Amino acid sequence: MNENPVIVAVDFPSAEPALALAERLSPELCRLKVGKELFTRCGPALVAGLQDRGFDVFLDLKFHDIPNTVAGAVRAAADLGVWMVNVHAAGGRRMMVAAAEALQSSSHAPLLIGVTVLTSMSDEDLREMGYTESAGQRVLRLAALTRECGLDGVVCSAMEAPELRAQCGPDFSLVTPGIRLAGDDAGDQRRVLTPADAIANGADYLVIGRSVTGAADPLEALQRVHRELGSLA
Ligand SMILES: O=c1ccn([C@@H]2O[C@H](COP(=O)(O)O)[C@@H](O)[C@H]2O)c(=O)[nH]1
To answer: Which residues of the chain are under the pLDDT cut of 70?
Structure first.
């Protein structure tokens, strides 16, 4: 298991609760993920604030646009000094190759990750959109393409991790949201596993939002995750 596999999703509408959470947690226990809501409201200053407190930041903006635009966006993310950034694999080969090439000249390139099928989506959701593949089949197809394009890994559900690990090998990062502590509400997520099951399936990184941030005591919830993983005494 990765030394520090937990990434806490800091999904808040303003800087104050995000920074308060960062003060309560510690970089030894987790990395932090900044997504669309927080970044749109607070921008690069908030990313810098979290980095100043010692956290690696995953900038989860899931870029999906024409190749030239996405290349510029990942270059901008690299300039923020983030640890990980992502693009939608559904943007296709030329878009992903442009993103990977854009980072080649960066002095400290972030990990570049392709989003396969959102963990909030079920087979039925995909069928309704005209896809004939199951979520699992589509994840495998998009992961193969992502790897061919030279990216470092994929966002997927931990449910797909065993097949992905077999297909993509040990060095391809599997970043898995849709994680819930036992008994917690899945909410809008559809492809969900517990932290222990996700790691047992071969996930490298667990993205955990509401099971930690929505808990009465987020630090205690994060420590519970580590106890479940056996990564904290
Ligand atoms: O497929 C995906 C890709 C990204 N996410 C993001 O992860 C967190 C999950 O939050 P929870 O509160 O643990 O459900 C959230 O920021 C999503 O934007 C994802 O869930 N699925």
So the answer is: 232-233
Rounded Cα distance, 100 and 153, in Å: 12
Is the C-beta atom of 225 inside 6 A of ligand 1? no
**Residue 232, pLDDT score:** 60
Q: Is 36 annotated as a binding residue?
A: no
- CB-based contact 34:60 (threshold 8 Å): yes
User: 6-229 has which fold?
Assistant: TIM Barrel (3.20.20)
Q: What radius of gyration, in Å, describes the C-alpha atoms of the chain? A: 17
123 has catalytic annotation: no
pLDDT at position 233 is 45
State in Å: Cα 198 to ligand 1 middle: 15
- Provide the pLDDT for residue 231: 81
Q: Where are the domains of the chain?
A: 6-229
Among 56, 62, 152, 204, the one annotated catalytic: 62
DSSP secondary structure code for residue 132 in this structure: -
pTM: 0.97
